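Shipment paperwork, digital attachment
Item: protein structure file
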Amino acid sequence: MSTNIRPEISVKNKYRISKHRFYELRHFCLQYGEWKRAYRELDGYPSQSYATDVRSPQPGDPTERIAEQKLYFRERMELVERTAKETDPDIGIYIFRAVTKGYSYEHLRTKDRLPCCKNVYYMLYRRFFWLLDKARK
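Attachment content:
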């Protein structure tokens, strides 16, 4: 399921970002599930999961490398979570589900009982990506 939203909006819209930047940020958010899975897999023991790079062993403390990797994933997850909350305290959880799982407005409205109209939702959806754009610069 994906959110069908036009990547380009009017120049007059205050939450306008370029089409390609929108796609970049959207795909960034869709990686949330991968980050969460990789974060959980990093338990402090060396393994051959995709979260650790076993192809090119690095000198140094393996515990330090794992901590750095966990920090890498945690920072990205927190950025998406924080931006969703900053977008709107009440609708933020719905925006978070949309951007991390690709849910559409219709899915959120019917399955999750989204408490706002389509125009408000898409305005907040655009605001989320505008805020994320500012945070990622």
